[in-house]
Design goal:
Blueprint (H helix, E strand, L loop, with lengths): L6 H14 L4 H8 L3 H8 L7 H10 L14
């Protein structure tokens, strides 16, 4: 499990997974059903992205998202 504390953290995870899969931004965007610009901005940690679309990208790249209260064990 990796702690994500800011948008740039999430973007770096997505970029790393995309590159591991050997996909270009254009290929990955097509697979995730989003635009290339959106995926590029998501990977760079843009703070004004649409949350629903970001969740779709995360799911397409095989990530699960869990939220827990601070200080509580996993």
């Amino acid at each position: 499990m990796i702690k994500v504390t800011k948008p740039e953290d999430m973007g770096a995870l997505i970029r790393q997974r995309r590159k591991q899969a050997g996909l270009t931004l254009q290929q990955a965007a097509g697979l995730a059903g989003v635009g290339v610009r959106f995926l590029s901005e998501l990977e760079r940690g843009k703070r004004t992205i649409q949350f629903g679309m970001a969740m779709e990208v995360l799911q397409q790249f095989g990530f699960e998202v869990f939220v827990r209260a601070k200080g509580h064990p996993t």
